[in-house]
Specification:
This protein has helices at 6-11, 14-20, 23-40, 42-45, 86-121, 124-138, 142-157, 159-164, 166-193, 197-204, 209-217, 223-245, 257-265, 274-301. It is mostly helical and 308 residues long. It is found in: Cell membrane.
């Protein structure tokens, strides 16, 4: 009998069938793919480079969108207060927001999985210490930790140095602030998996505790991690936007969706509403489609809602 390839098994899976028959999930995925492509391919698809001083003319500041009176066909969505093409700046800004969101979640997942796996598998004493550390971390909000670290760094090293490492610093700050959610989820899954027969069988045949933990228990605890990760990407992007809005996120010279909203907010009442409005709409759509996909994945992985 011929063995089916992984691709053939995937095409026949209930996962793909359910996904293709869920219009909300399919539409959200399509929009997310477009946004991801436009963000990461910004240098290729953006008409202008907002980092290139030769493309910026202060005389072009606050030009309205091209379809409004006073608009310029060269600037589809108008320009910001610095004279940068808003459409191009939004694409570059979306790339920065996505990099921070994905990077922060990768760090959260790594720290949380490691701590949760060790806490659930190594016994009461280690578990108690690690979970108390997680509880202390949870007592501080993400914004409190991020604002505290960002403000201290800017005060000690200056704004110029902060601008150089703003992206990795925000990834570190947001990632470090949210790892306990992963740790608690993985720990609970590990405690449930430890009692199952396959773990006892692995012990009987002489497999080491480390091998059992990494090769057998860990893969069976990752389903809830995938669900958390989709939601946490949206939360990380929102955290970056909130920090940028209060001036502790991305600097104006390196635009993100949050920093664009912050800069444009100063001009919204003077009539230049597009500087804030369009980045705000993109941010809302991006977070919405990620959350909708996360909701679908959570429902799919919930055995109580299985529709097969």
């Amino acid at each position: 009998m011929k063995t089916r390839s992984r691709w053939q098994r995937f095409k026949e899976s209930y996962f793909l069938h359910d996904f293709l028959h869920d219009k909300v999930a399919l539409t959200s995925f399509g929009i997310l793919v477009v946004l991801l492509f436009m963000g990461f391919a910004a240098p290729l698809v953006a008409p202008f480079n907002p980092y290139d001083a030769h493309n910026i003319d202060i005389m072009n500041a606050e030009i309205p969108p091209s379809w409004l009176p006073g608009g310029d066909s060269n600037f589809l969505l108008g320009t910001d207060a610095q004279g940068r093409d808003l459409y191009s700046t939004m694409l570059y800004g979306m790339r920065v927001s996505l990099i921070i969101g994905i990077g922060a979640v990768a760090l959260q997942a790594f720290l949380g999985i490691m701590v949760g796996l060790v806490a659930g598998f190594m016994g009461k004493r280690v578990e108690s210490i690690l979970m108390r550390v997680a509880d202390v971390q949870l007592s501080f909000s993400t914004y409190m930790v991020a604002i505290f670290i960002s403000a201290i760094f800017q005060a000690v090293f200056g704004v110029a140095k902060y601008e150089e490492i703003a992206v990795p610093l925000l990834i570190l700050v947001i990632g470090f602030a949210e790892w306990p959610q992963y740790a608690r989820t993985v720990r609970a899954s590990v405690l449930a998996e430890k009692k199952k027969e396959y773990v006892e069988a692995a012990k009987v045949i002489g497999l080491s505790q480390k091998r059992i933990m990494w090769r057998h228990v860990l893969p069976n605890t990752l389903s809830p991690v995938f669900v958390i990760s989709t939601i946490q990407v949206a939360n990380a992007i929102m955290s970056e936007a909130a920090l940028s809005f209060v001036g502790l996120g991305m600097p104006v010279t390196q635009p993100s969706l949050g920093s664009l909203i912050n800069v444009g907010f100063e001009y919204i009442f003077s009539g230049s509403w597009w500087i804030t409005m369009f980045p705000g709409i993109v941010l809302v759509v991006l977070i919405l489609v990620i959350n909708l996909l996360g909701d679908w994945l959570r429902d799919f992985l919930n055995p109580k809602l299985y529709k097969g």
